[in-house]
Write a structure and sequence with these properties.
This protein is α/β, with parallel strands linked by helices and 542 residues long. Helix 1 packs parallel to helix 14 and helix 4 crosses helix 14. The chain has two domains: 257 residues, FAD/NAD(P)-binding domain, CATH 3.50.50.60; 176 residues, Succinate dehydrogenase/fumarate reductase flavoprotein, catalytic domain (Flavocytochrome C3, Chain A, domain 1, Alpha-Beta Complex). The longest helix has 23 residues. Helices cover 28% and strands 20% of the residues. The protein binds flavin-adenine dinucleotide. Flavin-adenine dinucleotide binds next to helix 1, strand 7, strand 16 and helix 14.
């Protein structure tokens, strides 16, 4: 098998300056890694958690589950079988349905643990969001979201509380410590080589019970995207996970792990770009809401760079970006009028596009302020006429005028006879000033990852577990395929936390429930990875 160069440039001539020993080593202090380390500690293991940055990653607030205590309190009922089948169907069954079941069976317990151990000691709890986004029959939705909150009106950020928990439970958390290489002796993973980024030196950590990889995927790494998900580089103009450079996945593949063969990712439709931008010239790494238009996900009129409408705008947020990738230039424009803030609530968006999104877009004034800021920055343009707007957006005038006229006719007819947007979500464009902007995708994270079984053990080319190696979160594959299903709000973070918790329990105990996988020993063709990609050049800066 070809060797994927380690992201941080370890080479065999470098001698580790020392060797430390732990029982469980977790790599990456994000949504999966924080859960994994806490779970392993709970089982009595000595745990070391390494994180390459100086802080833990943002612990996400929208968390999906089935049958959590918060959902029971709110009377939220989800048919587990229907949900799992819907997820598998969304992925055209290019997933391991046993992993979907594993998530559905364990997500409630995981968010309950979070509520009991991290939120409640600080006076917070989880609130079940009952209103699934029902738009059309084509997109089945489930009320899976649980939001951490104190007052039921705004989010409670719990990252620091989680950090306190780790400290008070003697979890050895080492910042500025980066995974560069996994060590496998005979058929067992025995530890890793890490880089102390502050001291600029390498050392070894032996892990007697095992290693959990949770480094968050590879969306920051342009070379790996080019290799595994090249269309993502064209569709996206922003990467919102700049920490995730593929170190976990590449390290595991270098010792014989296999990975999903097709890409999966989640993309937001809120990436503002200056007029005239070419998508191939832009892949901006950002960890904040840089140039992020909150109303970008709203189903206002969207046209291609020729001024023509090309899709139903009222679809899962990634789909409009997918549809734009079939249009010239991959980018698209959004057009709206001065009355827009009055339609926002009735459009009934959910997840983090929700009107009244606790703590962010709490009312229409917040949306207006967000838009006005982008006007000041020159990323949203304002004009008195559609002609002037077309000119400012570099769109063909006649074509844009036609699209706007057609939109307004559909408002009157109460029917979108072109693409089937629900009538209550078609909004008029008649009251000036008019607004417009050019949008492209923002990749939030990649999901195609290492193949794992339902114990979270990483699989080798014979589909057998590599002993003492586990993965969770975006580094773990088999769960998503293609696009993200935003009609199951909070699934990405919950997948990371639930599988992190399972990985932590399993690595610590070594008692694995029997997997249902058909592990086999022979006659499986070996897939050659023949690339010598130097992954370091596109990596995010440490
Ligand atoms: C802007 C944005 C909004 C989102 N909103 C939601 C939401 O509302 N609901 C939802 O369900 N999901 C959401 N997601 C997705 C969710 O955040 C991810 O699915 C989840 O964080 C994945 O968890 P993870 O542990 O795999 O990765 P992360 O949480 O990204 O953690 C990975 C950690 O590994 C560290 N790391 C990387 N390389 C190394 C290395 N070599 N050595 C040591 N450490 C390393 C990173 O620094 C990072 O701290 C959002 C994502 C983004 C970017």
């Amino acid at each position: 098998m070809g060797y994927l160069k380690n992201v941080d440039g370890y080479n065999e001539d470098i001698k580790p300056v020392r060797t430390d020993t732990t029982e469980v080593l977790v790599i990456g202090a994000g949504n999966a890694g924080m859960m994994a380390s806490a779970a392993a500690n709970e089982q009595g293991a000595k745990v070391t958690l390494i994180e390459k940055e100086k802080t833990i990653n943002l612990m996400r607030v929208g968390l999906a589950s089935v049958d959590s205590n918060a959902q029971k309190r709110a009377g939220t009922v989800i048919d587990k079988r229907e949900l799992v089948e819907s997820l598998a169907s969304f992925a055209q069954h290019n997933v391991d349905e046993r992993l979907l079941n594993t998530w559905a069976d364990n997500s409630g317990e995981t968010v309950n643990w979070l509520e009991d151990n991290i939120l409640k000691p600080h006076g917070a709890h989880l609130k079940s969001e009952p209103d699934a986004m029902i738009t059309s029959k084509a997109y089945q939705a489930f009320p899976t979201e649980n939001d951490p909150t104190k007052d039921d009106k705004s989010f409670a950020q719990y990252g620091n509380w989680f950090l306190d928990y780790q400290k008070s439970h003697n979890i050895d958390l080492r910042f500025e410590t980066s995974l560069v290489k996994l060590i496998k002796e005979n058929d067992t993973v025995t530890g890793v080589i890490v880089k102390d980024l502050a001291k600029d030196e390498f050392y070894q950590i032996n892990a007697t019970k095992g290693v959990v990889i949770a480094t968050g995927g590879y969306s920051a790494n342009k070379d790996l995207l080019q290799k595994w998900d090249p269309l993502a580089l064209k569709k996206n103009v922003y990467n919102d996970s700049p920490r995730s450079n593929g170190a976990g996945i590449t390290s595991a593949m270098n010792i014989g792990a296999i990975k999903d063969e097709e890409p999966a990712e989640t993309i937001f439709d809120r990436g503002l770009v200056p007029v005239g931008t070419k998508t191939e010239d832009m892949y901006y790494q950002t960890s904040t809401y840089d140039h992020w238009l909150w109303i970008g996900s709203y189903p206002f009129l969207k046209v291609n760079l020729r001024g023509e409408r090309f899709s139903n705008e009222s679809v899962p947020y990634q789909f409009i970006v997918n549809a734009a990738s079939k249009e010239p230039g991959y980018l698209y424009a959004m057009i709206w009028d001065d009355n827009y803030s009055n339609y926002l609530e009735k459009i009934h968006m959910l997840g983090c596009a929700r009107f009244g999104f606790p703590g962010y877009m709490k009312d229409k004034e917040a949306f207006i302020a967000d838009t006005e800021q982008h006007i000041k920055d020159g990323l949203v343009v304002k004009a008195d006429t559609i002609e002037e707007l077309a000119d400012k957006l570099h769109l063909p005038v006649e074509s844009l005028k036609k699209s706007v006229e057609k939109n307004n006719q559909q408002v009157i007819a109460h029917k979108d006879d072109e693409f089937g947007k629900e009538a209550y979500r078609i909004t008029p464009i008649e009251k000036g000033p008019f607004y417009g902007c050019i949008l492209g995708g923002r990749i939030l994270c990649t999901f195609d990852g290492l193949r794992i079984n339902t114990n979270m053990e990483v699989l080798d080319e014979n589909y057998n577990p590599i002993k003492h190696l586990y993965a969770a979160g975006n580094d773990a594959g088999g769960f998503f395929w293609g696009s993200y299903n935003d009609r199951v709000p909070g699934l990405a973070a919950s997948h990371a936390q639930t599988f992190g918790r399972l990985a932590g329990k399993n690595v610590a105990t070594g008692n694995h429930p029997k997997t249902t996988e058909n592990s086999i020993n022979d006659n499986i063709p070996v897939v050659e990875v023949d690339d010598q990609t130097d992954a370091s050049s596109g990596a995010s800066q440490l």
